Amino acid sequence: PTAELQALDAAHHFHPFTDRNALAKKGARVITSADGVWLKDSEGHKIIDGMAGLWCVNIGYGRKELARVAARQMEELPYYNTFFQTTHVPAIALAAKIAELAPAHMNQVFFASSGSEANDTNIRLVRRYWQVKGKPEKRTIIARWNGYHGSTMGGGSLGGMKPIHAHGGMIEGIHHIGQPDWWSEGGDMTPEEFGLLRARELETAIEELGVENVAAFIGEPIQGAGGVIVPPSTYWPEIQRICKKYGILLIADEVITGFGRTGNWFGSTTFDIKPDIITIAKGLSSGYQPVGGSILSDDVAEVVAEGGEFFHGYTYSGHPVACAVALENLHLMQEEHVVEHVANVAHPYLKARWDALRDHPMVGETKLVGLMGSLALTPNKEKRAKFAAEAGTVGYKVRERCFANDLIMRHVGDRIIISPPLVITTAEIDILVERAKKSLDEAYKIVKD
Ligand code: PLP
To answer: CA dist 116 to 123, 229, 294, 332, 384, Å?
Structure first.
């Protein structure tokens, strides 16, 4: 019974990113099975997953092909490592497939089991790059406030989430600049002016820190966990220009935007960015196996290799079962034209309906790139005002109503975000939007009263 499961869960399972006291009062929802874009819970509810789990189940749930590949790989070679000059077919084949899909100048992959681990790898990689080039003092990495790069000490330090920094501090050599969130922080500027202003904070930071001390800049093409902050059109070209001018490495964290989410295989293509390193995870295996990594430009791979052995790696770097499943996931996505479905079908269909939510009295900005979207909630659209209640109070109410209406959307402060499985059909988009509207109406009534 659900209540028994919830009690056991509360007694023994210490959840990530969860308030344990809230959990003790109201048990966690127990998810029992899933198919396509639909989750089922222990009470028999059919829930539409507007978040693809944690932005990762790109191919949708319930794909038996992936289960079969995992079983076959476990029988044949359940584990072997890729240290000390050994390798195996799944790691070879997956690295080659990623290189085929990645931008032309990127042909090497370093594997990890998660986005956080991959970003920790990146910290060591870029510092090592400059050591080999004879500039060991070039070690500071510039990142953005409200960015998210994972939860390890390295990933959490790169990220710009203050509550994470507050839980245990930060590693040294990380510097944060402002985020390109025009809706919340752009004041009277146009989005384009604000995009330039925020990008130029990178130039100011490089000048202040001294270019001789700066190794790299890291950013998500679209900030995901920060609230699906889509940067103004001026932002990325200016960042790219500054990285080039000062010769610092550019890391695109594509843990969310990679593998079709923005309507291209990589968000770097969508935003015309030429990174030196791309962080990947999540959609790489559609979440069926924990696997991530760093795709390296030929320059980064060659320079780091010149330095001899790279003293870094994880027991599960290139895990054969994870690699085999990820490879099959990418095959299925290619065979079924999933990325084209996002660009040509799901995105235009959802965009018309998502943008129409701006008619709702509480919705200000609507954003949708590929299948990654946000709604900014506001009491006054003209002024882009914030609610009087503590930030996130209204967002939480909308999320709760969604939960009650069997729709998973997430709230980040007073923004509501979606990132459904990429295989979502137009009929399912209708259901998602209908439930979203209903939830917004119900929350608005509570907020107004
Ligand atoms: N980078 C980005 C952009 C992410 O969104 C995430 C997770 O949400 C991570 C890194 C961390 O990935 P993981 O949770 O697999 O460690």
So the answer is: 11, 20, 11, 26, 34
Does residue 329's CB lie within 6 angstroms of at least one atom of ligand 1? no
Pocket perturbation via mutation, ligand 1, pick of 116, 152, 153, 220 by most ligand atoms within 8 A of CB: 116
- Does residue 277 come out as left (phi exceeding 0), alpha (psi in the -120 to 50 range) or beta? beta
Instruction: Read off the amino acid at residue 100.
Output: E
8 A C-beta contact, residue 287 and residue 47: no
Q: In this structure, are residues 231 and 269 in contact, taking their beta carbons and an 8 Å threshold?
A: no
Fold classification of 2-62+337-448 is Aspartate Aminotransferase, domain 1 (3.90.1150)
Tell me, what's the pLDDT at 162? Answer: 96
Tens of pLDDT, residues 100-150: 999 999 999 999 999 999 999 999 999 999 999 999 999 999 999 999 999
156 lines ligand 1 (CB under 6 A): no
The pLDDT confidence band at residue 31, using thresholds 50, 70 and 90, is very high
Ligand 1 centroid – CA 371 distance (Å): 17
Residue nearest atom 11 in ligand 1 by C-alpha distance = 150
What's the gap in Å between 290 CA and the centre of ligand 1?
A: 12
Angle between helices 320-335 and 64-76 (to 10 degrees): 150
Q: How many angstroms is it from 388 CA to the middle of ligand 1?
A: 31
Closest CA to 347 of 426, 286, 233, 410: 426
Atom of ligand 1 nearest to the CA of 54: 8
CA of 116 to the centre of ligand 1 (A): 6
Find out whether the beta carbon of 281 lies less than 6 Å from any atom of ligand 1. Answer: yes
Q: Are 277 and 254 contacting, i.e. CB atoms less than 8 angstroms apart?
A: no
Residues 6+ apart with CB under 8 A from 16: 151
Domain ranges for the chain: 2-62+337-448, 65-335
Instruction: Say if CB 349 and CB 425 are below 8 A apart.
Output: no
Minimal CA–CA distance to 289: which of 332, 325, 333, 256? Answer: 325
Ligand 1: which of 55, 113, 123, 148 to mutate, judged by most atoms within 8 Å of the beta carbon?
A: 148
Q: CATH assignment of 65-335, given 1.10.10.10, 3.40.640.10, 3.40.350.10, 3.90.78.10?
A: 3.40.640.10
Q: Give the Cβ contact number of residue 444 at 10 Å.
A: 19
383-435 pLDDT per residue, tens: 999 999 999 999 999 999 999 999 999 999 999 999 999 999 999 999 999 99
